[in-house]
Every structure is written in structure tokens, then in C-alpha cells.
Known about the structure:
Elements (H helix, E strand, L loop, with lengths): L1 H29 L2 H5 L13 H6 L11 H12 L8 H11 L5 H5 L2 H21 L4 E4 H18 L14 H10 L7 H8 L9 H28 L13 H9 L12 H14 L2 H16 L1 H12 L8 H5 L2 H13 L6 E4 L4 E11 L2 E8 L4 E4 L1 H5 L2 H4 L41 H18 E5 L6 E3 L7 E3 L10 E6 L4
Helix pairs in contact: 7-8, 7-20, 8-14, 9-11, 11-12, 11-13, 14-17, 14-20
The structure holds ligand 1.
The site of ligand 1 has 22 residues, from helix 13, helix 14 and helix 20.
Amino acid sequence: MLLIISASLTCAVIFVGIYNLWLARIRVSSYGDVFYQLPGPASPSLLFGVARQFWTTDPTEQHEAWKPLAVRTFVAEMVGTGTLLSEGANHRRQRRVVNPTFAPAQTRQFTELFLVKACQLRDILALEVAVQGGVARVDIYSWLHKMSLDVICEAAFGCNIGALSGERQSNELFDAFRLVAQQVTRMSIWPMLRFFFPVLRVFPEEQSRRFARARQVMGDFAGKRIKEKQRELDGSKPKGPHRRGDFLAMLVEANMDQKIAVMQRLSDQNIIDECRTILTAGHDTTAITLSWTIYCLAKHPEIQRQLRNELRAIATDSPTMDELAALHYLDCVLREVVRLYPVLPSSLRITSEDTVLPLGEPININGEIHDRIWLPRNTPIVIPILALNRDKTLWGDDAFDFRPDRWDNLPKTASTMPGIWGNSLTFLSGPHACIGYRFAINEMKATIFTLLRTYDFELGLSADDVGQTPTMLRRPMRLSDPDSGPQLPVLVRPYRAE
Ligand code: HEM
């Protein structure tokens, strides 16, 4: 019976695959000469085209399009339909309510939280160093992941889930995220098919079950807290002893603001989805970027030394956000990491109406020069974030090198990049640009500041063995040990002044 189901399923998948290729072919040819003749990469497989290469190779080389429905279904499985997935007027309404909670003044008040959590990690590493006899070998990605999870839970809900301390291992929220964090590091056909053909999601699968569980736990948790906050705000419950306003409190308050018309307000379900979005978008992204920062510094000891000198010149362990922002070399290092290692190497859009796309470089087709192409409504477009961040025509011949000094003398071409931070597209730009970029940058600066003043980092494996997971978010992994999941082994030594 199982065999028959599996054979029918395989046939169905192959049929849907061929049907889609045929549709794509008709679609491309109907766009006319210009679109049809734009050069694309050679296709190594008749059935899957360049899909495998899309996941496994450096995206600087790709110009492939994703199906938006696939991305939406995949992301919605975990976060529901918060700001990340809504569009048009609905999206503007959601951003209007959520924006104030990410304003610079609000983000600034989390500085103390960032430093407290970074110091907690610093002390945990000190214990590891002591236990392991002077030099600790640790998976820094997993520690940074725990730290950023603690930070976002406290910032979002005002609750400490104790991921770093391991005190509350049975906490439901922490367990749910731990399940989701058991990420894929190998290419396999079934998840890919499920991604491209959302209809296949009706068949149960382990990853979907984990996502659904996390979604439910986050929803229940946020639901209870929303009711509490609403009762606090309308006066029917005494206010809790908040050290600082958390996102949820700010969001509920902003949503009850008299200036926002009742029709414009978010429903409780909308707020729950916003909480899920912020929890999910706001922790692993930061942990991954921090891991790549440690990787770059460990690979370039001279740069690590120079940065440490700058950080150790500060007299206090608890700088203000302004003091952190004034650290010039720290800023250059972070800009360089963010440019070279965007967590999301590409993103997808689909044209909502017929449009004309101007080309940066005109193309010559059959002797005719085209400086723009016409894109009909519903054309999928890939925004090649990594490709643009490393484009040699924009950044110069050393675009692939880690060179923080470049930020003191940036080529004019690089300043034409439209990103919201650091002249790169890592946080994207436009209406869907990352809402939490200030939060992320401040958290990363506070963490690097704290860790690098105390420790010297060295790679705990050969640099050639470090790879990127073939997932939507590019985590570090060990190429020789994909089964152990995302990781970045490093050697940690207490820093001793020479
Ligand atoms: C280094 C860390 C981070 C990176 C690289 C990053 C990157 C991004 C990118 C590329 C997008 C756009 C995705 C798309 O539309 O395709 C995005 C959206 C978003 N990010 Fe971040 N993010 C980071 C940290 C954070 C943090 C800390 C938060 C919250 C505390 C956050 C909250 C969001 C939200 C809510 C959106 C959806 C915005 C919208 O669609 O209007 N992100 N982020």
C-alpha cells in the first residue's frame, strides 16, 4: 500500500514538475524578445534546472527566480501573516503600528539588556576556559543563538526564558525554538519539492510539525500576554514592575493610541502574528551575523588585535549606546561582515502591476541597445543581495576580501547601493526593509565589545572546512560534518596584554 502511495506521489510530483516547466517556458516566450534573450545560467538538469546550484553555490553567480507563493507558504507556516508577509495597504497599516516600537529611542533602552546578556555569555565562556584547562573549544554559534534568544524574549515579552543559563530547560518557548533550530545542513529532494510545490504540504513532515508546534506555543504565549497588557493599560489590572517597556507592551499601547482610527488598529490575532514575526526574525539573524563576525576576526588576527585595542581603550564595561556608536573601527568591522555575509543571500518580489525595470548596464540584443526591460504584472524577481554586496564593479577588485579599512575610502559606486544600513542590501530597503536593524546593530556591537575585550578567538577547524547551510538563512556549518547541524567551533583564550 505504502509503495503504491509513494509511486503515485512520485508520478504526481514529476507531472507537476514538468507541467510547471512547460508553463514557465510559455510564460518566458510570451514576454517577448528582450526577456527571452536575457542570458541565464546553463541548466545542468532537464527536470530541476539550476535548482540544486541555487542552494549550494555562491549566489553571486545566480539570476534565478523563486515562486513567491512557495516562500510565503514556507514562512507563514512558522510566523503566520505578520508584517513580513502582508502587502499593500494592509502592510502599511501594520508597519504604522509596529514602527514606533523600533524607533531609535525605544531601541536605545535595550542597551543595558544587550550588555547584561553579553556579560552572561562572557562569564559562561570563562567557566568553559577554566574547566577545559586554559583554552576552551566551544561552538560559538550555539552560544550566540542562546544569547540572542534570551535577548529577544526579554525584549519582546519582558520574560527571561533562561536559554543561556540552562536553568529552565523545560520552558515551552525555549523548547519550541530548540526544535526549530535543529536545522538542515544537507540538500534533500523532499523538502525542496515541498518548498516549490506548496500543495505537497498537505503530507505531514517532520519540519512542518516542528514549525506548527513552535507557532502554536508562540501564539498561546503571546495571546496570554496580550490580554494581560490590555488589562494593565485599561486600568483593570495593576501595572507589572517593568524595568523597561517590552515590544508587546509598546505594541499594545501604540495600537490603543487614540490617533489611530479604530479601523486601522490591529486585531489580537494580528498582534500575535507580529510577536511571532519579531521573535523569529529577531534572534537567529543576529546570532548568525555575530558568528560570521567571530569567524572573520578569528581568520584575521591582525584585524582582531586592532579592534580589541580600540575596545579596550574604553574605561567602562557598560558603555552607553552613543559610546558604542562612536567606536569607529567596530563600526567598519561590522559593516564589512554585514556586507560579506548577509544572512539572507537573496529575496523575492513579484511585480504587483506592469512595470518597466531600468537596467544598470544596457544590453545589446541583435544590435539593438536596451536600457530597460518591461515586466508584466506577476513577474517574479530575485533581489540578489549577496551578489550585489560583493559585486566587483561596485566595490572594486577586492570585493570578496574582508577589509574593514575600505569603509574609510568607499568607492563612489558603492554608495549608490540603496540598502538602509552600511551601503549593502543585507537589511534590504524599501517598504519591507528590516524593521529591527537598529536593534540588531546595537545588540551586535554590545556583544562584540564585551567578548573581544576579554577573549582572543581562533578558528577551531580549518577555514576550508567552514561552509554555509543550504537553507534560507545561511548559518555556519562544518563541511566535513554536516550531520551535526549548524556550528562554528572556535578556540577561546583569555586575552593577555603583550
Ligand atoms: C543581523 C540581523 C538581521 C538581518 C540581517 C535582518 C535582515 C532582514 C531582511 C533582509 C528583511 C527583509 C526580508 C524580505 O522581505 O525578504 C528583514 C525583515 C524584517 N526584520 Fe530583520 N534582520 C535582522 C534582525 C532583525 C531583528 C533583531 C528584528 C526584530 C527585533 C527584525 C525584524 C524584522 C521584521 C519584523 C521584518 C519584516 C519587515 C517587513 O516586511 O515590513 N530583524 N530583516
